[in-house]
Amino acid sequence: MKLLVCIKQVPDMESRFRPAADGLWFDESDLAWRMNEYDEYAVEQAVQLKEQLGKEPELTVLSIGPDRVVEALKKALAMGGDRAVHIQDNAAHLKDPWQIASMISRYAGDKGFDLIFTGMQSQDRGSAQVGVLVAEMLRIASATTLVDFNYADGLIQGKRELEGGVKGLVELQLPALVTCQLGLNTPRYPTLPNIMKAKRKPIETIAADELLSEGALAPATKFYAPERKAGGMVLEGDLSGMVEKLVGVLKEKTAVLR
């Protein structure tokens, strides 16, 4: 069995964000970087499946981005991946989900992967589109937002998180793709011996131009912080007093009442 996990390196959400000078994305200076949290669940589930099946599966980890994404790939290798693929792209942040999925599907198209794991979405862009687009381009089954996963005899059984706490039961035959939601498992911390082993595992580098020719279907046009607005007003006291205060505010500060 051949397994593929797609991961993304994103800014730490505790970082201070501000728009870049070109107004198309955020300023990357002074940001701390980490593996996308949803993708950690994807890596962990793939490693657990690899451990369940013994030595048979080969687990490949793939990421798209500039040179810094190699650190995220090394973490995934230390968690249990066998090999990594770095699609080198210094402008990955300007690619739309269709372009990202196109690169992944063109790489994976002739590799014979039986099962592909991705995070449900990325924490920085949050489109939740790449996984299902890859599945569609490869013409394989897919299930999203998995919070439970079981595999036996070529059949995946899982639970999807739906709205209002409702879960949906799904079954998929291989080949397939699943996107992983928070809570699916508990991602492991790489141990020091595994971190050292990861340094010897192969990382293949492929130029993005070799896999992509299309322009963006939904190009970014502007990226900006929300406008600051005045704070709200809290009225306290008994109901009749608050009504009088509210009417006074509406007359004084708005055109609702005159």
From TrEMBL:
<keyword id="KW-0813">Transport</keyword>
<keyword id="KW-0249">Electron transport</keyword>
<dbReference type="InterPro" id="IPR033948">
    <property type="entry name" value="ETF_beta_N"/>
</dbReference>
<dbReference type="GO" id="GO:0009055">
    <property type="term" value="F:electron transfer activity"/>
</dbReference>
<dbReference type="InterPro" id="IPR014729">
    <property type="entry name" value="Rossmann-like_a/b/a_fold"/>
</dbReference>
<dbReference type="InterPro" id="IPR012255">
    <property type="entry name" value="ETF_b"/>
</dbReference>
<comment type="similarity">
    <text>Belongs to the ETF beta-subunit/FixA family.</text>
</comment>
<feature type="domain" description="Electron transfer flavoprotein alpha/beta-subunit N-terminal">
    <location>
        <begin position="23"/>
        <end position="215"/>
    </location>
</feature>
<dbReference type="Pfam" id="PF01012">
    <property type="entry name" value="ETF"/>
</dbReference>
<protein>
    <recommendedName>
        <fullName>Electron transfer flavoprotein subunit beta</fullName>
    </recommendedName>
</protein>
<dbReference type="InterPro" id="IPR014730">
    <property type="entry name" value="ETF_a/b_N"/>
</dbReference>
